[in-house]
Each structure stands twice: as C-alpha cells, then as structure tokens.
Amino acid sequence: MLIAVFEICMEFVPGCCYIYYKNVLQIPDKIAYDGDPVNPWMTQLQEKLVAEGILSDPSKALFVPQQHYADTVDEFIGQLKGFVGSARQDSKDLTVFVDGMPKECSEKGAPDADRAVRGALNNAGLSPDWVILSERLGIPPADLHASHHLVENTRDIVRACRPGIFVVLGSGSITDVVKQALFLEGIGSPFISIPTALTVTAFTSAFSVIDFFGAKRTGLSREIAATFWIRSILECAPPRMSRAGYGDLLARFVAYGDWYLGKCLGVMDRYDETAFRLMEPFVEGIKKSADGFARSPLPEETIRCISASLAMAGIAMSVSGETTPLSGFEHVISHGLDFLRLTSGRELVFHGEQVALGCLTSARALDWLLENNSIDELRWLQDPDNEGLAILNDLIDRAPLPPAPDRIEKARQEFIREYMKKSGRWKGELALGRIGAFTKEWPEIQRNLARLTQRTTEIASLMRLAGLPLTPAATTPPTSDDEYGWAVRFSPFVRSRMNISDLIFWMGEDVARFIYKPD
Q: How far apart (Å, rounded) are the C-alpha atoms in residues 297 and 113?
C-alpha cells in the first residue's frame, strides 16, 4: 500500500486538485482554491466523496486514488514530482509501461505523447525505466489486450522490475494487464495510471476485466495510488476512442436497474445506492457533454467533465466492492460480442461502442417493464437448470463463428459454470415462492426502476449527439445483425451475476425483442 489512511485532506494547486493523506483524520469544512486553472468537476468529485463519508472510512478511502488534472505535460511533471516526493517507501524509482502505439500530443514541439512524457521525465531528473510492453511480449501493439495469457507473461516482466513506483501511460487494456500482473505478484508498490484517452473506468478502478478463452471475467485487482489526466494528450486521442468512453459512461443510466431487480428477486447478495449517489453530481454534465464528442479536438470542458466522471465511476465501483453499479445487461452484451471476435481472431470493437448499443437494448427492456402493469400471466421458467443449459448449448452450437473446437469448448465450460451459479440461486428463490412476492411488489418495483434509470429516447438522443453508433452495422469494425442478436440472446449466460436479460429470460420472453431499431 502507498500509505496508511488515517487522515484524508484535499489540496488544490495550479492546474490540479488532489487528495493527500496525513496522520489524524481532519477534513476541512471549506475547500480553498490556490490559483487557476482548477477542474471544478474534480472538486465536485472530492466534495461528494466527503459528503458520502467515503474519505473518513479507511477501508473505503484506500480505494480512492489521488486525482490530478493538468493542462500540459510540464504541469503534470510538477504534480508527479510532488507525488513521488511524498511516497513513503525506500525506492522512488519509476518504471513506466507503454503499449508502443504512437499517440498524439497537442503541445508545440511534442513529437508524440509517449516521447513528450519520457523527455519531460528525463529533463526533470526522474529518469524512468521505460518498458514498451508489446515489444517485451513479442506482439504488435494492436494485439495487446487484457487476456489471461498476456497477464501471465507480464507477471514475469513486473517481477524483474526494480523496486519503486509503477506507472502505466496508455489505454485501459495495458492498465488492466499491468494492474492485474502486479496484483497476482503481490507487489504493493504505488501504481499510477496516466490515461491517454477518455475510454474506460479502469484508470481508477480496483477491478480488472480479463479475457479467459474468449470469456471476459471481472475480478478484484490492486488499488491505484494516483491518476493523472493530461489535457494536451487527452484532447488528441482518436475521436472514436473518446466517444467509446462516453458510451461506457451511459451505463450509469441503466445498470442500476439490474442490481435493483436482482435485489427484488432475492438473487443478489446485497444492494446499496452509494455508487448511484456518488455519480449523481455528474449526470447533467454527462448529458451536456454529448455534443462535445462530435468535435475534434475534444473541447476543454468536455475533457474536464468526462475525466472526472470516469474517475468517479471507477471509484464508485471500487468502494462498492463490485462493478454492479455501472455494469449490467449492456456490459454482458458487449462481452458476448467480444467472445465472438476473440474466438474467431478478429479485430475487437471498442468496448464503449458496444456498451452504448447495449444501453439501448437495456433501456428498451426497462421501458417494457415499466409499461407492463401486470406480470401475472407470464410463462415463468420453472426449470432454469435444464431449460437454461439446453438454450446455452444450442446458442454456442449456433454461434456465428468459424470452427475452433478446443477454444469454444473451454469457453462453453466457463459459461456453464457461471450460469449454474445463477440458476441455483434462482431455483432457491422459486422454492421460496419468490414469483408471488415479486408480482405483489411490482408497482413499487416499477416506481423505483423509473427513479434509477433513463428512458430509451433520451439515451438514443445522447448517442446521436455524441456520434455513437445506434445500429450494429455502424460500429468499427461493423457488427452484423446476426452477431448482435446472438450476443443479446446469450447475455443471460455470460456471467453469474444477474442482469435484466435474466429476468426477461426467466419470464419466458425472448430478450432479442428489445433490440433497438432507429426510426
């Protein structure tokens, strides 16, 4: 761990705002500003963490990385030097991991982002070890994704690194790979993330999403000590990458419905709305930021809002102890699509593009549930084990995939294991008469679903403004209707945690009926 968490204070310096730790808990009543520019969205992030008591709870504050926002690489270097100087450990050497993919930077004279940061670090006397992970792994940079195989190979690399502070400058994929390798090796040195695009929540989250034989699994990883957001790099990211990050954030508007329904059905172990409240200050900003993603470079206000929103999303999941608050039906659709592409060795679509499409499907299912005033006459699934497994196996057999028996069979067994956990919980609730109780509580359930989620028309409007694909064919690379329909139908079998598609499936309905089709 970086340091024991006993006091958490907030300090603001020119170009950044961040949390730091002392020895006795003392959170100031008023937050002072010391110079400009300060990202007001990061201020809201910290104020909300204080208001929710996150920073006064050492067990949760542990999962809150310092948040630094800088306009330029030079400002970032000043912030990093402050962080390194305050780190309580013997070695303060830096090891920086990059993926080897060229990245732009808007600063005058900066050849590219990696070289700009490396040069600035050397000029500041920090002289890091520079690890181009794709070269060390012997793969093209484009092939570096968060797979179990690459994590295992990266464990050897991190084990051989000199003691000190570990840094990832890059995407969510390399962040998850290095984060998980450090976690599995039990290396507790401070870990810093420097996003090069506004793409995912991995930059602040204590979870990693890892591919096992084409089946993606989310698991506990190691905490992040600090995240540095650099505007001059983020504004130059490929627009499609930035839009994908916006698509990932749209899960905020539907995923809580999954968790709430799981609680109502008795198949979720726990439920709370802490993460919902933590994200609340960002809702209007997320909506107002949509049209910024149709412009290049990204507007400064868009970068400020979305960097803080992504930061809070990762923190909210971490302090909740699970990814459930921001990962539901829409995410298992994305994982299903990834399975098809990973198993057939094809180029992946950006995660957030697929999540955004999944949000439309999830929102349509939610709209149907809100319109359905009676659920008494539905054909509820009475034998989830046998009926479910028959459908799972049939879908695997009919998947739009080239022949790859060994890989597909390994994934099949992974999916069966996950589904059986969920079906076992559902069978237990059936035995307790859960359907009757759920039907009786339906009016109240509908009211809460409406409070926790947004409607399809609003999500579709935000996606249009942002330039996100509203149909499978509009993704890059294109997704066929058959592939998307398969992923939607397969969604109840992707992981053991319940989502809305499970409820639709248990109700005896075809979940693919909710695929969005633009007018």
A: 15
Four-residue CA torsion sign, 234, 354, 517, 452: negative
Q: Is this structure's pTM higher than 0.85? A: yes
Among the listed residues 317, 336, 309, the one whose alpha carbon sits nearest the alpha carbon of residue 247: 309
325 and 471 Cβ atoms separated by less than 8 Å: no
Query: pLDDT tens digits for the chain (519 residues)?
Result: 233 333 333 333 333 333 333 222 233 332 322 333 569 999 999 999 999 999 999 999 999 999 999 999 999 999 999 999 888 777 789 999 999 999 999 988 778 999 999 999 999 999 899 999 999 999 999 999 889 999 999 999 999 999 899 999 999 999 999 999 999 999 999 999 999 999 999 999 999 999 887 778 888 999 999 999 999 999 999 999 999 999 999 999 999 999 999 999 999 989 999 999 999 999 999 999 999 999 888 999 999 999 999 999 999 999 999 999 999 999 999 999 999 998 888 899 999 999 999 999 999 999 999 998 877 667 787 788 888 999 999 999 999 887 666 778 888 898 999 999 999 988 888 877 888 888 889 999 999 999 999 999 999 999 999 999 999 999 999 999 999 999 999 999 999 999 999 999 988 889 999 999 997
DSSP state at residue 192 = E
Count the alpha carbons within 13 Å of 228 in the hemisphere toward its beta carbon: 28
Residue 433 φ/ψ region, left for φ over 0, alpha for ψ in the -120 to 50 degree band, beta for the rest: left
| C-alpha closest to that of 4 among 68, 125, 89, 128 | 89
At 205, the amino acid letter reads S
The closest alpha carbon to 44, from 76, 14, 71, 69, belongs to: 69
Which is nearest to 10 in space by CA: 210, 23, 81, 26? 26
DSSP for 38-92, please give it. Answer: --HHHHHHHHHHHHTTSTT-HHHHTT--EEEEESSHHHHHHHHHHHHHH--SS--
CA distances from 494 to 208, 330, 417, 419, 519 (A): 16, 12, 10, 7, 30
Helix (H, G, I), strand (E, B) or coil at 97: strand
Task: Report the chain's C-alpha Rg in angstroms.
Answer: 23
Contact 345, 507 (CB under 8 A): no
Q: What span, in angstroms and rounded, lies between the C-alpha atoms of 459 and 28?
A: 38
* Closest by CA position to 66, among listed 131, 36, 118, 21: 21
Letter for the amino acid at 311? A
CA distance 211 to 172: 14
Q: Among 312, 348, 309, 357, which Cα is nearest to 330's?
A: 357
Q: Which of 250, 276, 273 is CA-nearest to residue 329?
A: 250
Q: How far apart are the first and last CA of the chain?
A: 52
Question: 505 CB contacts (<8 Å, ≥6 apart)?
Answer: 381, 388, 492, 511
